[in-house]
Write a structure and sequence with these properties.
Number of helices: 3
Distance between the termini: 143 Å
Shape: rod-shaped
Oligomer: single chain
Order of helices and strands: EEEEEEEEEEEHHH
Strand content: 15-25%
Radius of gyration: 45 Å
Length: about 200
Amino acid sequence: MPPQPEIRGTLIPVGGGDPIPLVKDELIVGRRGSCDIRLDFENVSGKHCVFRLINGVWHVRDLGSTNGTSINGSRLTSEHAIMPEDEIGIADHLFTIDYIPSGPEAFITTHRVFDEDVQEERRRHSLMELAGLDTDEDKPKRISRPSRAPAVIQRLSADEADFDDTVPEHFKQPTKPKPRTSGEDDDFLRLIEEEVKKPEGE
């Protein structure tokens, strides 16, 4: 009994149908009977596309077909890697490949998707911040400061400044001494004379 070929993955029709085992590292798909995988549909070209297993990851390349080959709705212009969740369109017939990717390319592809998600998350937060909708309580709140100093600094009067403890001293206007009247001057001189005339010992 001949040995069974190793199955490297399974081509599964989306919406139902018989699964097709992928038993070689390179498989030509088309309408011709000589193709490795024959799809007998009028809109499928004789040699439509080729599947290749490279470093543990399946790839697909269109072979100049009339109705094209696509991945997740995007028509291919070059060879493209296929992940298990990707939908492959051969003309308008959709398939997925059931397999476990391995090798460095699978690692890079997985991390590229992760990086795109991270960038999208950062972009969303940046837009939220720009719109002033960032509500993270643990972030320090920014204090808005004027872009330039005012042209004229308004000084408070002495009475206003005395009642405001928050006003710096250099903003307060110095209090002007009240002018003395002639009567007050006479009283002051009289007090000095009395002090001078007092005998010593008092």
